[in-house]
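Hi Prof. W.,

I finally got the NtA domain-containing protein prediction working! I wasn't sure whether to trim anything, so I left the full sequence exactly as given:
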Amino acid sequence: MRTIQWTSTRRWCMVLGVVLAFWPSFALACTQPVGGHPHYTPTEHTNAAAIVLEGTVVGGQPNNSPYIQMATVEVTQYFKGVAAGVGSPFVYIDGFGSGAACLSQVSIGDHLIFYVRIGPKGQWQAHYMSAGDAIAQVTPEIVAKIIAAVGSPPVIPLPSTPGPLDPTSIPITTPVDPSTVVAPTPQLPRELPATSQASLPLIWWVLLGLTCLAGGIWLQWQYLKSRV
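And this is what came out:
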């Protein structure tokens, strides 16, 4: 009986350790629907978004996350939504994050096309039509399709604005079609926290799992040692 209990304890320690150690990876995975996530063309994205711009990520606020959630973007040109004479060269865009959460992941230095929606309080947010598709690579083909969809040339931002402009103060030239508005993402605080703590629960799960796994291995070693 003691041998059976000993074997069961070792086995469950190792199984529990593996499950807890790797559970965060499975839990955070962006679940694929049957047939995969739908794909939309640059034209469809442009027609659905309130603002479309090209720019470079020059800053960001992790906000309790290892990933940038609110990006500071230096705008190269506006394709849609901002008229000449009112476009800022720097803007804030909310709603990015981990690809495991089906969000678009951005890093400082990324030069991209951004599809933007207007949030309930006027803030600019990443516009998603499918998983992780609020951004696009800057290629001549995509740029040409966006310009064709808008029907007018891009607008170069004003060079006089010294820093990031509050998005709610920028007049939007294209009204938002309510049928294209997706559920708003949570508004993120502007203050950058001193430390990031959102990932701590996952870290504790991993540490607990590794501890159980190590305990199972130690019990296995003790069992083999007792048989020598």
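The longest helix spans residues 200-227. Does that look reasonable to you?

Thanks,
D.
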